[in-house]
Amino acid sequence: MTTQQLTQQIHKKKSFLCIGLDVDLNKIPKHLLETEDPIFEFNKAIIDATHDLVVSYKPNTAFYEAYGIKGWQSLEKTINYINEKHPEIFTIADAKRGDIGNTSSMYAKAFFEDLNFDSVTVAPYMGKDSVEPFLAFENKHTIMLALTSNEGAFDFQTLNIDGKELYKTVIETSKNWKNSENLMYVVGATKAEYFTEIRKIIPNSFLLVPGVGAQGGSLSEVCKYGLSENIGLLINSSRGIIYASAEENFAEKAREEALKIQQEMQVILEN
Amino acid sequence: MTTQQLTQQIHKKKSFLCIGLDVDLNKIPKHLLETEDPIFEFNKAIIDATHDLVVSYKPNTAFYEAYGIKGWQSLEKTINYINEKHPEIFTIADAKRGDIGNTSSMYAKAFFEDLNFDSVTVAPYMGKDSVEPFLAFENKHTIMLALTSNEGAFDFQTLNIDGKELYKTVIETSKNWKNSENLMYVVGATKAEYFTEIRKIIPNSFLLVPGVGAQGGSLSEVCKYGLSENIGLLINSSRGIIYASAEENFAEKAREEALKIQQEMQVILEN
User: Fold this and answer.
1) CA of B11 to nearest chain A CA: how many angstroms apart?
2) Which of B44, B77, B96, B191 is catalytic?
3) Domain ranges, ordered by start, for chain A
4) Domain B3-270 falls in which CATH fold?
5) Angstroms from B74 CA to nearest CA on chain A
6) What distance in Å separates the CA atoms of residue A178 and residue A183, rounded to the nearest whole number?
7) CA pseudo-torsion sign B217, B221, B225, B229
8) What's the pLDDT tens digit per position in A108-141?
9) Predicted complex: ipTM over 0.85
10) Model confidence at A169, in pLDDT bands (50, 70, 90)?
11) How far is CA B101 from CA A53, A149, A153, B58, in A?
């Protein structure tokens, strides 16, 4: 999928919502545990109930790897289900990978070819040759951690390097990498004013924004400072939507939560 | 496994060699491709031929994920084979993971519980709460990227923060994290003089050292500056050993290469 197609989908659905499919067997409704693949059944119900309200789904690979081969099978079934039923949806493998060049190529193959995700998240610490192998894939997108939404973000990401925070240096440096037009960035919603600074460096890049909702960030604040000409934002919510209820009506309740956010987004897009 | 037990193994085997099991189906001997699980058969042959010369094996997860579920099965068979046949060997899942707290817990569960590795590599960019969930596991070890051996290491890791390179700040900061005694660090062999500086910060921590051999680092130089009282070094070699030959005698040739390095290590340990 191209970024132009993603922007078109946002305008069509009046939504730039991404739902994080972070399935924890301890948190899903009990009746699903009796099925053969509870993780997939959970995801399928969430997808069926919300696909018209979102432009993206984002399974975090940790929640699948924790269940070994069975978990990897659930991940494969989930991505295949989305790609078959809703090919217009932008899929994100939230994997935060990154390694030396030939090894990053193997990760890129895993997520872009074997699983056929539209994008994958990567970590920047190992620099250019750890990210460029991902960027080499046409119409695939590499979402690099810039400023994350957790407390530990302030351990290193905001440290000062010659008068500039590390996360800004990371973003600026990455603009010079080969095929950098395939880069997007993770920017947490916890401090909306950061978006002003970031937009000075990358006016149009898409930003994947965790931290709205459960983690306390404000949607309207993020949009005020973060929206670009092509919208340029994907707002992720995981727990607030998928665990809205642990009863049999979980999918319906998830839809209600997603609808609330989509309606807020519609107002923002129409203004 | 405790670090004391690891040091004992090093003295017993007169080796601190780690072999990286980074299996690429395009590089292994053709006759293995006819077997049901070529990756596992390759690893099994390498392990059978080298286990008395090494203290550690390190599969890089990228090379398994690239083959999807089948690859994950090969990884599981490989770690089970090592744990059953050679429980004295220190196993490293080279996964370079890291995410917000509850997500890192899932990764820790995947590698420490489900697959039962002794250790896992992690990336530091997301800070304290992305690493501490790994450190919470008793007698398990978390090997954090500090200074890597690739060219991109100089993009961010060596940037200057108030007169100190980022990688040093990363190491120093991590010493204050909960259960930091379970930390080890990845330090590339490409510039041996860095080890002097690093040993001032962490005199006794184990360092996992890639970059000797194929990537050009010198074993004797690394040892000169990097050895600690408890040895404190695991020297990794992957391609130089496992791809010594692509013929039917590949395991025998791998043993020859491993033996050369082990003999160099023996001389160093006895001096």
Assistant:
1) 31
2) B96
3) 3-270
4) TIM Barrel (3.20.20)
5) 10
6) 10
7) positive
8) 999 999 999 999 999 999 999 999 999 999 999 9
9) yes
10) very high
11) 28, 11, 12, 25
